[in-house]
């Protein structure tokens, strides 16, 4: 952290840590009802003036009953420094990108038959950019195009 300890403080700290007995804690998490009939992934993305995020939900159907569980999420703070100014629409576009990547990751890791995938965003500007055949260079980073 940038605060060096004296040799004596270091020894005291190491002895203190040795005395910790932290038990392993397991929290079982049931994600799917068995047997399931259909699985969908719904990813919600959003951005603000200071951050952007994505949350992936797994929606399952079993005997005409539906269940949805948060399965994965990712968020990032807006970079303080950098070349281009990140407007909210540009951050919304980046949120869509991390949402797509998160959804792809979840789908690969689950190894389950996913019948539908939905990415949800409230940004009409970012959605229009995604729908356009090419995104202008001044709008987004190279990795999105």
Automatic annotation (TrEMBL):
A GO MF term: nucleic acid binding
Q: What Pfam families does the record tag this protein with?
A: Peptidase_A17
Q: Which InterPro entries match?
A: Retrotrans_Pao (IPR008042), RNaseH_sf (IPR036397)
What's this protein's name?
A: Uncharacterized protein
The source organism is Meloidogyne enterolobii
